[in-house]
Every structure is written in structure tokens, then in C-alpha cells.
Amino acid sequence: MATTEEMRLDGNAVAGLLGEVFAAEMTAAVVRCAHCGTAGAVATAQVYAHGPGVVLRCPGCTGVVMRFARVRGRMLADLHGVGMLSAP
Amino acid sequence: MTPWRSAVVRDAVRETASASTLVFDIEDWPGHRAGQHVDVRLTAEDGYQAQRSYSLSSAPEQERPAITVERLDDGEVSPYLVDEVRAGDFVDVRGPVGGWFVWHARDGGPLFLVAGGSGLAPLMAMLRHRSLAGSDAEATLLLSARSPDDVLFARELEALDGARVERTFTRSAPEGWTGYARRVDREMLAEVAPAPGARVYICGPTGFVEGVAGDLVALGHDPSRIRTERFGATGG
After folding, report:
1. Which residues are paired to A74 by β-bridges?
2. What's the pLDDT tens digit per position in A64-87?
3. What is the model's pTM?
């Protein structure tokens, strides 16, 4: 059985999901972490997608940057960890 | 953006004992860039849906988009795609998606591609694109596979024009093999990698990708020139 860390993906894996939420290609967008200020491509976020929702964490401080879950047909997005998002 | 589309499997090609390439006919396919992927969704008769993301292994120049899938034995989607799907079957596809782990011939080189197992798929799209676009970008592929039987696109890799291919076998090497027979490490990268400044793309299992990226940074490569794509634990 793989450990949680071995199951960890990166932002590339949620390109489709992010496209659904933001209606744009977001993996090349730059996100600044609201917790520590680290800025980098969304593609470099640590992604945990094997649970009921999807969690994106900052590669600098591992703080939660974005969370997504589909609940009763609705997409819930928690973006409180996003300091700034700059899309191409 | 990027709606779900119904894709017809035009061809299912066995690559290795555990991997197959699926070639699709997709109406209104907008074309893709090398390194992009698609989400594939399967729907069971009772309505249950499962969805996974797979890299396109075909070049943009090729007539039909194709994905190459490695079977994870306890997986929900990959065993079906690798072993069950036949020409004429339908699957739902969303894509192409991703805009970061991509390379275009006009980006130039030198290019250093590092593949762990089926992490070769998106890098193969880049190598095919390089050839078909007539790019003269210097390109080096370092491929880590368990054994020669596990190498995807083995015959095509023999015939890549102008690209250098280095292989390492982590479990069993052929009789008389004098090349690398261990996991990718810093010493191997120091021997194989082009000088810092090259565009680096690494794809494979999470631990593999992070190990290689860390070693390349230690060897003087600028993290901003290194692009990574992790596909999680193999066998997970």
C-alpha cells in the first residue's frame, strides 16, 4: 500500500479540474501562498487527490492553498490560502 | 472551457506486458501541445464514474491523439484501458489540459528529458514533436526502466534522429549489458545531463521526480529551468 506521500501528485494532475473551476488553463498561472509568500506555477503545488476532495498545498510551507470538493452536484472551492493568483 | 467529448478508440496497441497505447478519433479535437494530457472518464452501467488523467504520447503533428497507459494492478481505470478496451469502444475524454509541462520546438534546447517508467509518455510526445517539426534542438533522454521488456516505444527510441538516448535498468539488465543498471543518481546525472541552462523535463513516480530534480539542482541546474510532472506511486 502506497503511503500518502507516495500518492502525492502535483498541479499538472488537476489541470482539468482547475479548468472547470476557473474556465482557463491554470497550471501555468502563478500562485502566491497566503501563508508564507512562496510564489510559483500552480503546476508545482503539492496535490493530494486520492481522498474525497482535492487539496493543493504550497511546495514551500505545505500550507493549504486551495481545496475543492464536489458535494451534491455542486463544486465547492476554498481558496483562502491563495494570496495572489496571476494567470497568463 | 474544455468540454467532455466522446472519443472512439481507433486502435489499441500493446506496448509492453503492462502498457497499451490508445489512439482516438475525437470529433472537434482542437489539437494539443507536447506534454499535455487528457482526463479520461469511464461510466459503469449503474452510472458510477471514475476519472483519471493520462499524458498524450502522440505528437501534435500526428493525425490522431493517443495516450499511453500503464496498468496499476489495484487501479480502477488503468486495467480496463490497458487490457479490455478494443477498437470501436467509446470513452469520455476532456482535454487537452495543462499548459506548464509542455515543450514546443520554438522553445529550443538543449533539452534534457528524464523518464521514470511510463513517465516516458509525455516526453515521447516531445521527442516525436521535435522530429516531426524538424527541430535541431539538442536532446538527451535518460530513461529508467525495470528491465528492457518494460521500455515503452523501444523500437522507436532506437531510431530517433539526432536525439541521444541513455537507458538504465533498475531490476534486470540484458546479458552482457555494459550500461547503467541502477536507479538514477547524482553521479549518473553528472555524466548524462547537458550543462546547466538546458531545459529539463522530468516525469515519473513522485519519489523519482523529486530525487532527480533535487540532484540536478545540486549539480547547478536552475530550478526555474526544471519542469516536473509526478504521477504518484507506481502500483498504488
Report:
1. A71
2. 999 999 999 899 999 999 999 999
3. 0.96
